[in-house]
Design goal:
Its cofactor is pyridoxal 5'-phosphate. The structure is a single chain. The chain contains 14 helices and 14 strands. A hairpin with a 2-residue loop joins β1 and β2. The N and C termini lie far apart (64 Å).
Length: 433
């Protein structure tokens, strides 16, 4: 990039620019691309150096033998390591999350894998909150033990003493190297109290001389309604496939944190070939421009849909939406950590799986599909899809029953979504309660 840092302008005088504004231009200098207002797609596998000495310097930085210049990840070398399109996304995502640095990967699971492989070693223990996304559950519970990495868990992220007990118990198996949480959790919207977790990690550090790294999957809320790195979590992880991408037309992931914390993650990404391609990176940079308004509109519609389900006259429903969970401790943490509810939530009916399937089949606008955070509204039965690889015992423990149904509210008019649900509830359950 050019020496002139105006393309990374974050202030006008003393006024700090908002992330929504900086999504339009931050990290990109039009004068380096023939004056193009929008970044082009840099479809190249390799980059030319002005001199061989410059190439040598770039490789020293990439390999970690020398530090990168302030505010840079080093020069462009090869698209497996870095390229302009991915660097633009990383710069802009860092602004939204409130983190010093970001690393973008080829999928959300690629981002999680890069984190785990960068920091966990045989004999270590990873402690997880529960439930997690089904793919993460499988990676931690089934894949890591094959490499002699032990696991532990806690089920109530609002119970500080319970978290401490779980980490102490896990410490009897080996060094607790990492705590991996998902908050809010998919599909129950359960929360982990960040302040409580940090106090627990302080105690573990005092007792053992080692502080476990904390990682939060921030996909459901972030980066608009929750930023976890500024709240003391070491790394925020994202499936960019979801709200950030926002149109169900790409797959990508990201990790946010301090430059030093992400240094081994970046090295792992390069070594394993987990970088994201230029075109998909370009698509994400476009999506970031509308992220706030998309998430805010979908959240507003989600509230209205959740209210209709709560009040529906056909069958009793338990609503697992952050603003409908009637628990004092939960609400205190939600209001402290989050600025809004996002638009993905579940509801639970006291019905069989076949009845849940009939309800889904009777919908017209909602598409029956996994994933979430797209412009279209989706409906999903987690027990038979995203969490089908999790044992029945664990699903029951997490509350992922046959009657739990997850919604991802998109950008359709909420009145139409409610009409679709009303028709499906009426046809499925025949008469009002």
């Amino acid at each position: 990039m050019a020496n002139d840092r105006n393309y990374k302008k974050s202030k006008i005088g003393d006024h700090v620019l908002k992330p929504e504004t900086m999504m339009m231009s931050y990290g990109y200098d039009p004068q380096l691309s023939e004056g193009s207002v929008k970044p082009p797609v840099f479809l190249t596998s390799t980059f030319a150096y002005q001199t061989p000495e410059e190439g040598e310097e770039f490789f020293h930085i990439m390999a970690g033998r020398k530090p990168a210049p302030q505010g840079s990840v080093g020069g462009l070398i090869y698209s497996r390591f870095n390229h302009p399109n991915v660097e633009i996304v990383e710069d802009r995502l860092s602004l939204f999350e409130g983190a010093e640095c970001s690393i973008v990967c080829s999928s959300g699971m690629g981002a999680i894998s890069a984190i785990l492989l960068a920091y966990l070693r045989p004999g270590d223990v990873i402690v997880q909150s529960a439930p997690l996304y089904g793919g993460t559950e499988t990676l931690i519970r089934k894949f890591l033990p094959e490499f002699n990495i032990e696991t532990g868990e806690f089920h109530d992220g609002l119970d500080e003493s319970g978290m401490l007990t779980s980490l102490r118990a896990a410490g009897k198996k080996g060094r607790v190297a990492m705590v991996f949480i998902e908050s809010p959790a998919n599909p129950t919207n359960s929360l982990v109290d960040f302040e409580a977790l940090n106090r627990v990690l302080d105690i573990i550090e005092t007792e053992t001389g080692h502080r476990p790294i904390s990682v939060c999957d921030n996909t459901l809320m972030g980066p608009v309604f929750q930023q976890v790195v500024p709240q003391g979590i070491d790394m925020a992880m994202y499936s960019l496939t979801k709200y950030v991408g926002g149109h169900s037309d790409l797959v990508a992931g990201a990790v946010c944190g301090s430059r030093e914390m992400l240094r081994p993650v970046r090295a792992t990404r390069g070594a394993l070939g987990l970088n994201l391609d230029p075109h998909t990176s370009w698509m994400i940079s476009r999506s970031l421009e509308t992220l706030s308004i998309r998430m805010e509109r979908a959240a507003d519609s989600g509230r209205k849909v959740a209210q209709w389900i709560a009040d529906n006259g056909y069958i009793a429903a338990k609503i697992l939406h952050p603003e409908f969970i009637q628990d004092i401790a939960y609400q205190a943490v939600y209001k402290r950590q989050c600025s809004g509810p996002s638009s993905t939530f579940s509801f639970v009916l006291d019905v069989s799986k076949s009845s849940a399937f009939r309800l889904i089949n009777n919908l017209s606008i909602f598409k029956s599909a996994v994933s979430l955070g797209g412009s279209e509204s989706l409906i999903c039965h987690p027990g038979s899809t995203t969490h089908s690889g999790v044992s029945t015992e664990l699903r029951d423990k997490f509350g992922i029953t046959d009657g739990l149904i997850r919604l991802s509210i998109g950008l359709e008019h909420p009145d139409d979504l409610i009409a679709d649900l009303d028709n499906a509830f009426e046809v499925t359950f025949k008469q009002k309660k």
